[in-house]
Amino acid sequence: MKLLATGAAGFIGANFVHYTMRNHPEYEVVVLDALTYAGNRESLKPVENEIEFVQGDICDAALVDRLVAECDTVVHFAAESHVDNSLHDPAPFVQTNLIGTYTILEAIRNHGARLHHISTDEVFGDLDLEGDDQFTEQTPYDPSSPYSATKAGSDLLVRAWARSFGIHATISNCANNYGPYQHVEKFIPRQITNVFTGARPKLYGQGENVREWTHVDDHNEAVHLILSKGAPGETYLIGSGDERNNKAILELTLELLGEPADAYDHVPDRPGHDLRYSNDSTKIRTQLGWEPKYGDFRAGLQATIDWYRENEWWWGPQKAATEARYSQLGR
Ligand code: NAD
Ligand code: TDX
């Protein structure tokens, strides 16, 4: 079984390749990644002799067509993934998330490989801070940012290609991920590495916004369950059920790092900042038997802090440029 993983020099895709090598040796893995600012070949170093790596753009139709023709399965992680960047410059989001996904769909249509498309809870918009509403597979799309709008558009392209052209495709919409190899632009690694570099952590607004934190290995286990047992044309929501607001996450991070609970700065809020996400993951739990293994968020966060402490060689080279981008945004 030959599996093409797009965007797997990024956070979730790299962890997917590691997870696949550990748990699913039946797959031969090819990675296609453009190595944008967010991609890092070092994230695949532990498995570099076990996989094939192709540096290239998912918008390159000839390249994508050739690679898809040789594969049985495509797992499509590649995307521009950071909301703040999309507010600053939406162009690469439209290109990669929409045109790139279209390019993959056309290659799938030509060659008949099976596609799993990785998406996000952000396509549904947000929920009230008060109350216990949740997104389900039936929730209408209502994205807020250029990032989530282009992810929503990519999901709709996949659905249309499945219905109109009969491609074998599945979609998953996962909540916020955390774990090793996450770019230091994202919330949790940014705060950990700020402390390690002597900078103060940065909280947007009052930090009341709520996210549902899911360990990246739990996400990737869900993806493998969908690959082996998911039904064509179906969408699955994935989430740990562990909802916390940003202030609480930051205070817990500071506590685990041995820092005072108030040792951070409030910075201007993100425009259009989604208030709360929460996925009802009953479908994947009951139909496919998925259950998160990282039930203890505190332990998962501690392990993540330890990973960043031990792997400055990995994140150190990205840190200064990332903070320079944040300075431009005033955050
Ligand atoms: P990431 O930014 O860490 O990695 C994205 C990868 O895609 C990088 O390696 C980059 O080089 C590559 N890439 C970007 N444009 C490309 C192009 N045109 N051609 C080829 N490769 C390209 O992102 P991530 O956090 O690992 O997210 C992976 C996927 O999961 C995305 O589709 C994202 O929308 C989705 N997702 C992320 C989260 C999260 O919490 N991070 C949650 C739910 C869903
Ligand atoms: O310095 C910060 N301070 C802060 O308060 C940063 C970087 C973020 N935040 C807040 C904004 C969000 O409410 O923390 C929360 C999480 O921020 P991000 O890590 O940027 O994630 P989010 O915007 O929630 O989106 C993430 O989850 C869904 C991923 O980046 C997306 O790719 C995924 O689709």
Features:
binds thymidine-5'-diphospho-beta-D-xylose; seven-stranded parallel sheet; 331 residues; globular; 13 strands; Rossmann fold; alpha/beta; binds nicotinamide-adenine-dinucleotide; 11 helices; 43% helix; two-stranded parallel ribbon
What is the topology?
Elements lengths: L1 E5 L4 H13 L4 E6 L18 E4 L5 H9 L3 E4 L6 H6 L2 H21 L2 E7 L25 H20 L3 E6 L2 E2 L8 H10 L5 E3 L5 E3 L1 E2 H14 L5 E4 L4 E3 H11 L8 E3 L14 H7 L8 H14 L1 H18 L2
Parallel strand pairs: 1-2, 1-4, 2-3, 4-5, 5-6, 6-11, 7-10, 8-13
Antiparallel strand pairs: 9-12
Helix pairs in contact: 1-7, 2-4, 4-5, 6-8, 6-10
The chain binds nicotinamide-adenine-dinucleotide and thymidine-5'-diphospho-beta-D-xylose.
Choose one word for the global shape: globular
Strand content: 15-25%
Q: List the secondary-structure elements in sequence, H or E.
A: EHEEHEHHEHEEHEEEHEEHEHHH
Q: Count helical runs.
A: 11
CATH class annotation of the domain at 2-178 and 213-238: Alpha Beta
Q: How much is the radius of gyration in Å?
A: 19 Å
Small molecules bound: nicotinamide-adenine-dinucleotide, thymidine-5'-diphospho-beta-D-xylose
Helix content: 40-55%
Can you summarize the main beta sheet?
A: 7 strands, parallel
Domain NAD(P)-binding: 4-295
GO molecular function, one term: dTDP-glucose 4,6-dehydratase activity
Keywords: Lyase, NAD
InterPro entries: dTDP_Gluc_deHydtase, NAD(P)-bd_dom, NAD(P)-bd_dom_sf
